[in-house]
């Protein structure tokens, strides 16, 4: 599926490298340029290398082929995608690939991101090219058809960069110096949108995007302390956007945990 890139999309990552190689024909009539024939299978490999273990998590891994038309007339510019196909190696409803390790805290179907293994993983590619595809055509004055191939790996890090669908865990120490037990913990995920205005001032908008209550096993008794871990999932369409000199928008994620006390009513005898 061809789609606009997410705001945090990057073309490189310090811990991930990708090579995308396709077996090519060479046609003398085409000046010995790489040639792909319609009606045949496009064969190749996607090679993914991760230089660290457990520092980042990987989500969807796929390759995508897109046929795009760009035409220009005196009155208008026409841009259209006339064909697209993709091959996913990891993602929703798919098993965890060899590039990742199973998350002990979740099943393969409940987590979008999985801890990356250190090393090289090779994925075989085989995609059919329809016979109806037009040939590559380039013309600087009027129009052109372009067949594009690209690879995509969704990455999230464990240092707090929030990406939609990623599983997260926070730990906290609760010291209860009262004579009442605590109530069940409530975790709230807040998305803060910060817009830099023309006069340099910033406007902030806070939205509660997720709240979750936890079981009685997270209660701390009177005059005691406990160390607790809270698991949660960043909701869909919630993500951070880093500050940039080119844009006026920044988006942060905050986690708030509420700890209440269970007060008992005093009985007068």
Automatic annotation (TrEMBL):
Please name the InterPro entries in this protein's record: Arrestin-like_C
Q: Which domain of life is it from?
A: Eukaryota
User: What is the name listed in the Swiss-Prot or TrEMBL entry for this protein?
Assistant: Arrestin-like N-terminal domain-containing protein
């Amino acid at each position: 599926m061809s789609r606009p890139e997410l705001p945090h999309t990057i073309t490189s990552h310090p811990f991930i490298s990708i090579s995308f190689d396709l077996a090519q024909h060479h046609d003398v009539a085409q000046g010995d340029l790489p040639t792909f024939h319609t009606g045949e299978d496009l064969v190749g490999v996607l090679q993914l290398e991760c230089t660290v273990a457990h520092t980042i998590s990987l989500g969807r891994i796929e390759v995508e082929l897109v046929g795009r038309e760009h035409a220009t007339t005196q009155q208008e510019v026409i841009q259209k995608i006339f064909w697209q196909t993709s091959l996913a190696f990891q993602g929703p409803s798919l098993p965890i690939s060899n590039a990742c390790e199973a998350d002990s805290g979740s099943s393969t179907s409940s987590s979008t991101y999985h801890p990356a293994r250190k090393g090289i993983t090779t994925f075989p590619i085989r995609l059919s090219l329809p016979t109806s595809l037009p040939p590559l055509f380039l013309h600087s004055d009027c129009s052109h058809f372009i067949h594009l191939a690209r690879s995509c790996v969704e990455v999230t890090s464990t240092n707090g960069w929030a990406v939609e669908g990623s599983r997260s865990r926070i730990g906290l120490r609760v010291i209860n110096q009262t004579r009442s037990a605590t109530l069940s913990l409530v975790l709230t995920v807040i998305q803060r949108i910060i817009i830099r205005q023309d006069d340099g001032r910033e406007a902030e908008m806070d939205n509660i995007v997720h709240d979750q209550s936890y079981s009685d096993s997270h209660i701390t008794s009177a005059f005691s302390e406990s160390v607790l871990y809270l698991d949660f999932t960043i909701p869909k369409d919630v993500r951070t956007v880093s500050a940039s000199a080119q844009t006026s928008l920044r988006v942060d994620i905050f986690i708030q945990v509420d700890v209440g006390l269970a007060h008992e009513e005093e009985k007068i005898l």
